[in-house]
Amino acid sequence: MKAIIQRVSQASITVGKEQISSIGRGICVLLGISKEDTHKELEYMVQKILNLWIFEDESGKHWSKSVMDKQYEVLCVSQFTLHCNLKGNKPDYHMAMPTEQEGTFYKNFLEQLRKAYKPELVKDGKFGAYMQVRIQNDGPVTIELETPAAAASDLKPLSKLETQQQRKEKTREKGYSESSIESNVSGKDDSTVSSGTEGDVSSEREP
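The structure assignment produced for this chain is given below.
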């Protein structure tokens, strides 16, 4: 599961010509649900969203209060495009949860968010609709959140060509290693064999 959190001074959602949701100061949450997400990822994201420190405290200290601390509003928008993978220049969304499952999962997410916070302070758009989302970003502040499972799923499987290339490289490395061992064994008494200390540049590889 992925989420883009934007701190806003105001935000609204319009479907057609009708404004269906609006908030004052708070956060706008663009939520992307993966086909591999479970209730565990849902709970993780709910807690992270509500407890993220992106507001100032009463003394003006930045990054010290969450939306829940400040009792601000939350506007949620389902955003399957966050799970985009590019095939050339064409977006591919096969990692996003199928629409028929996503609707129920997103509804459960909203229920958990309202249960953990205040129902009247959590607004949302219209799932599956073509929406116009107006966001007045405050700062600007934009934070990307990702569940551990979502981060792992971003590791794309190797293509057949990449796999073959890695095998070739491993074979070459193995051959080089074996030849080096033979060379060292045959020349271990040779006074011309370098100890490796002179001209050692290994320290340059240190960060």
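Interim note for the steering committee: The first helix runs from residue 39 to 51. The radius of gyration is 26 Å.
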